[in-house]
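QA checklist item 7 of 12: single-chain prediction sanity check.
[x] sequence parsed
[x] length recorded as 222
[x] structure emitted
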Amino acid sequence: MIVLSLRHLNSHLFLELADGLWMHDTGAPASFGGSPSLRILDQDFGIPDDYMGLNARELSELVGVDCRGLLGADVLGAFDQIIDVPAGRLTLSTEPIEHSGNAVVLEEFMGIPIISPSVNGEQFRLFFDTGAQVSYLQDDLLASFPEAGMLEDFYPGFGKFETMTHLVPFRLASTDRTFRCGRLPGLLGLSLMMADTQGILGNAILESGPVGYFPRRGVLSL
């Protein structure tokens, strides 16, 4: 088990390794960056230069944070994790670790976790994406909630886009939380249909306290 520094910068999460900052992104199937390989807890991971044409230099420019690259589901899925954004700590373990919280079952698609909260009593399948600064909901229901302003975002392979956001109340693990949600554009939104999902739950769910993320067991503990 190791405990790493976790930094919340420009609405994104970065863990600190020996060679610098790496974005924590459960919503990306593959990692990429400026180091050809990484060794974490005696496990070796090969790291390609880019993913869908996006490299570490371009990622740094898009998020406004100088980082070495991005750690996606291929690396993050190998560990039990306690993600503690307020305390600035990320605990990683190759052995099972526990977290006292309400357990939520996760499904997965290409290694990306899928969570199923409800909005207005209707359940939605959403990717759990720690790399997403806001959430997204591809449903007409979105427009019925209060507007929260325009947002510029980006997605590998699709580039930058703008969306109007809304404040949407979610119910998850018997608790109610309100998150800022936008709508993904065109083909990016349609790509969710491949996994029978209707949106993305972003990293705002992590901001109020420690969360257990156990991808090998398919559990999120809130």
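[x] summary fact logged: Residues 56-63 form the longest helix (8 residues).
[ ] second reviewer sign-off
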